[in-house]
Amino acid sequence: MDVATISANGQITLPVDVRKRLQLGSGDKVVFVENERGDTVVVRPSVAALLEAQRAFRGAAAEAGLQDEDDVQGIVDAVRYDDPNKRTV
Predict the structure, then answer these.
(1) pTM, to two decimals
(2) Domain tally, the chain
(3) Range of the domain at 71
(4) Which SS3 state, helix, strand or coil, does residue 74 take?
């Protein structure tokens, strides 16, 4: 278990092992995110953005009537080749 101490200014130093696991270096930013269990975790901003996108789109495929990867690929192909007749969503 890695422990960090909060300074009088509210600053913390991430332990070396944590920085290595997250591949963080000097000047990098971190985000504190609350997970589904209510725990606050430290993640890289790119991971936080991905988690936020997953939350935002949760259930969107079902609402759009997409049932499998072939449905998704059909939409991608229609958009890629700009064929409005193939678009189902």
Answers:
(1) 0.50
(2) 1
(3) 16-80
(4) helix
